[in-house]
Amino acid sequence: MERDYRLTPRKQDILRAVIRDYILTAEPVGSRTLSKKYDLGLSPATIRNELSDLEDEGLLRQPHTSAGRIPSDHGYRLFVDTLMEREAMPDERRNELERWPLRGEDLSDLLQQAAKLTALLSGCTAMVRPPKRANSRVKFIQLTPVGEQDILMVLLTDQGQVSNQLVRLPSPMALDELVLIANFLNEQLRDKPLDQLTETALNEVNGQLASYQDFLRALLGRVQPPSEGERLYVSHQSYLATQPEFSDVGKVGRLLSLLEREPMMIRVMDAIASNGAEVRVAIGSENPVPDLQECSLVTATYRLGDRVLGELAVIGPTRMHYSQAIAAVELMADRLTAALTELYGLESSPLGGHLGRRRTQGG
Amino acid sequence: MERDYRLTPRKQDILRAVIRDYILTAEPVGSRTLSKKYDLGLSPATIRNELSDLEDEGLLRQPHTSAGRIPSDHGYRLFVDTLMEREAMPDERRNELERWPLRGEDLSDLLQQAAKLTALLSGCTAMVRPPKRANSRVKFIQLTPVGEQDILMVLLTDQGQVSNQLVRLPSPMALDELVLIANFLNEQLRDKPLDQLTETALNEVNGQLASYQDFLRALLGRVQPPSEGERLYVSHQSYLATQPEFSDVGKVGRLLSLLEREPMMIRVMDAIASNGAEVRVAIGSENPVPDLQECSLVTATYRLGDRVLGELAVIGPTRMHYSQAIAAVELMADRLTAALTELYGLESSPLGGHLGRRRTQGG
DNA sequence: GGTTAGCACTCAGGAGGGCTGAGTGCTAAC
DNA sequence: GTTAGCACTCAGCCCTCCTGAGTGCTAACC
Fold it and tell me: For the CA atoms of chain B, what is the radius of gyration?
């Protein structure tokens, strides 16, 4: 598998030409085409010999005897790793991007925007996995009375998620009580993982607060609804649907169904992405899921500070425009990281000892 | 167009049978099939005569001379209006639904959930249009200091949207100032439409607050990012992609691209939906957009109190399972309305005169 | 008059056959 | 090592034929 491909420069040129042409046309590439279209200075016959060698090495294959060559997954891999020139994002696209600033009202909005821009830049269907709630920790909690018997709870996490819950109180509550509860919650829950809120808090309930136990349970229970796992932000599925390789009856449907199985796609993205900043590519059979054998994924992580929050990816046929896709994913992951840092990147734990000792305006 | 179709009961039975069979099989229905499969007590020849009449009336058509009949858009219309038995949701499905409670952490979550459940119930691709921001009015605004130089602004609207903005202050600000600003904002902006915040607020800036003008502009500018219109929550596009009528090369792609043009789809849904509670159906050529000629949409509105917030819809081929789709859309619109009312349906303006006079816990 | 059997007719879709052209591998000459 | 020439392969297209589902029409039946 991990063969060491030592190719003569000429073979490299030819392989590069084949892949480039195939990415463009989606048609098997023949020796005559290569000789005419690319400036190789070789006759078709010579090219044929080289193509035959490349096929023997497992870098190319023939769909049938009398057809041209198409790249194999190994061929694409070599291309991505060593042959492809990592072309910078074209200026026009970059300018276009400036006109579409990455702004969102909240995290969810931002991620959806990021998916959309990535899709537009790469020309591929794009996906963004949101931060795992299980990894989020409470940053602070605020309770605000709204009317006589309702309160608004605002919970901010260290990963930018904000949870707003409007809750009806079981009975009117004095402001003192509310302050007491809020302070209790902040003390107990600060830096606690989001998926352990209820137990953590309720284990400590005692004395004066015991009578609020049910209320607390209801309040905290709302923060993390028992949804079936995280969702996935997907954009421009039509890009996938218009690829000629998926025009067969049923293929589009199966692929889209796969994308809609969000927990599975999230697992796939997790499996592919690195922990660091670099872009990772999974080509065809390298994918952990059999149904993705004809697809490639390009993934990168986005971060807040030095913590990886989630992944951003594009998916397309193995015959995807890798350099463009990689550039798009890389750029957008950086922009998303920057946007998050600007929006949510407060200095660590700035609330320090102030919490609960300050008084603020009513509301 | 608005013909008065007076059909004999027998013709009605036959039309109903044709449509039911076609919805099931997606194949043109012939007289022999009808005679054998459905308990009409008629020979194929007789049925042929009736079919011929129904075709003359414009309710059926033949794809080609030697094929069976398929319903025309008018035929579907008659079916939906008068022939179809409005079957109740099957019990199993209803039970299934109970196990998937409609819960969400916030509005966006809730709408996405609603789209998903509608799709699962109806077997069609589902869409939910969120409340128009332009129609939302400010319910209350709260500013909370977070650390030395950051504040968290929470803005609650009367349509359930909550906007959280973490903003860095230009310079450290005394708590008094913050209270002043918050009170000012609440007084000025309560019940003001969300898309006029900046002007409304800034026109009134004066005296003591004048120096905060830039800060206020930045703060309020964040509430409504200049996104290209509202987004649309879509679920299970694969249902559309697996319909046999769209298996032609390119059709799926074109349809999905259409769905991705969110502003246009929102306009379409707006155009179809009623202002009241009832479910509306747009069949094939009744759709305002030419590219939707082969599709039907079933829409209903969801509400908060007596205000229409948005629409919920399913889209499928004109050969869709109307009774199931209508039941699903109706049920889910009701559930969504109920969920919203529970989450955000506070009594009107409960904050009354309290605002700004109360003191609450620090945060 | 409504219903039905019988019959001739139509036509999409599949199967089979031949042609074309793009592409190959091999060999021999340069 | 490179190239020209040649025989060979085979997917895709076109044409034709055949089949079967389905029709409309007519005449007989109840």
Answer: 27
Nearest to B166 among A225, A343, A361 (CB): A343
Nearest to A353, CA basis, from B173, B172, B144, B147: B147
Structure token pair of residue A171: 């009975």
What contacts A25, CB < 8 A, 6 or more positions away?
none
Rounded to a whole number of angstroms, the distance from the CA of A219 to the nearest CA of chain B is 12
CB-count burial class (<10 Å; 0-12, 13-18, 19+) for A227? middle
Over the stretch A10-29, which tens digit does the pLDDT of each residue have? 999 999 999 999 999 999 99
Strand order in the sheet with B162-168: B138-146, B150-157, B162-168
Chain B window 9-28, residues with Cβ within 7 A of nucleic strand D:
27-28
Determine the distance in angstroms separating the CA of B82 from the nearest CA of chain A, rounded to an integer.
34
Q: Which residue has the tokens 């202002």?
A: B275
- Provide, in whole angstroms, the distance separating residue A99's CA from nucleotide C4's C1': 74
Q: Do B146 and A346 touch (CB under 8 A)?
A: yes
Contact B287, B315 (CB under 8 A): no
> 3-class SS at B146?
strand
Nearest residue of B to residue A181, measured between CA atoms: B361
How would you label B252-268 residue by residue, b for 16+ Cβ within 10 Å and e otherwise?
Answer: bbebbbbbbebebbbeb
The pLDDT tens digits for B1-55 are: 455 667 888 999 999 999 999 999 999 999 999 999 888 888 899 999 999 999 9
H/E stretch holding B168: strand B162-168
Among the partner-chain residues A150, A238, A257, the one whose CB lies closest to the CB of B256 is A238
| Degrees, nearest 5: CA angle B3-B9-B13 | 95
pLDDT of residue B274: 85
Which nucleotide has its C1' atom closest to residue B44's CA?
A: C4
**Amino acid in the structure at residue A346:** L
Are B361 and A362 an interchain contact pair (Cβ–Cβ within 8 Å)? no
Backbone angles phi, psi at B101, to 5 degrees: -65, 150
Kindly give, in sequence order, each residue whose CB lies less than 8 Å from that of residue A280, ignoring residues fewer than 6 positions away. A272, A273, A274, A298, A299, A300
Interface test with B, best of A252, A291, A355 (most B CBs within 10 A): A252
Q: Which residue is nearest to nucleotide C23 (CA to C1')?
A: A66
**What is the per-residue pLDDT across B245-280, written as a single tens digit (0 to 9) for each?**
888 778 899 999 999 999 999 999 999 998 887 999
List, as ranges, residues 127-146 from A with C-beta within 8 Å of B. Answer: 140-146
Give Dmax over CA atoms of chain A in angstroms. Answer: 90
**CA atoms of A52 and A258, how far apart (whole Å):** 36
β-strand partners of B299: B280, B313
* CA angle (A127, A308, A223) in 5-degree steps: 80
User: Per the structure block, which two tokens stand in for B306?
Assistant: 């007596």
In the predicted model, residues of chain A with pLDDT beneath 70 are 1-5, 87-88, 206-208, 224-229, 345-363
Chain A residues with beta carbon closer than 8 angstroms to that of B179: 360-361
